[in-house]
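As a next step, we paired sequence with structure tokens, yielding the entry below.
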Amino acid sequence: MWQEIEKVWGYHLWVIDGQVVTLGKVIFSIVIFVVGIIVAGFAVRILTRRLARVAKLKESTTSIVEKVLRYSMIVMVALFAMRIVNIPLGAFAFLGGAIAIGVGFGAQNLINNFISGFILMTERPIHIGDLVEVGDVVGRVEEIGGRCTKVRTGENIHILVPNSSFLEKNIVNWTLADHEIRTKVTAGVIYGSPTRQVEELLLRAINENPQVTHKDDGFVIFRDFGDNALIFDLYFWITVTTVLARRRIESEIRFRIDALFREAGIVIAFPQRDVHLDTSSPLLVQLEKQPDA
């Protein structure tokens, strides 16, 4: 039995440059690679944590350093595994053609997302913790991976966005420079309302809200004479800390506007239509009382 095992272990797979590659060498190389990846993963995590603690790196920078070190360690472990069993690198040259065909037919998106991931890590248009808007998705960036970026929405749903989307589409990063943004609330009142009083009440609504910052910079725009209402836009500054923070603050402002308008007797407009009936002669209107049954 031992002789049979040695025979299988020493089975010749191919010969390149005068060096024989046996089944045992390939198995041993795979074992070294797997063990090396596991050990390297622990080493990279420990090294990254210590480096972040000493250098006081941000979370996004720490993530980039960790991924660069991890990919570098994978390449080094792979080369070491092949070297220690004397497997020439030329033995894997034949895979180049297959890889090229795979890239040509079905791996363009994968390679594109992988390269885009490195561009995101280098240029850093987004950071971990940023509040971003990608199409209809609004959420906070939790992880920038090699292929995709993990975004958590306000409903606590994790969405995996391909990295290429951040480079090919228009992305709104609400917190790129800081967490302060200017937002607005729109209100419509009926025709005939005192417009200056409406302006004063709108400004009072934001001045009374403690979550509104830079209160002196808030202002009102009388935007338009609408079909059914006089339309006003109230602009103000807030600090966005979570995904739903903006919506909650805007909701509180609307509650306060509604209360102030009710106290002042100002009516918030709603859609309405006046119907005019134009006839060539007067209409005959006749009221009849039905007899009791």
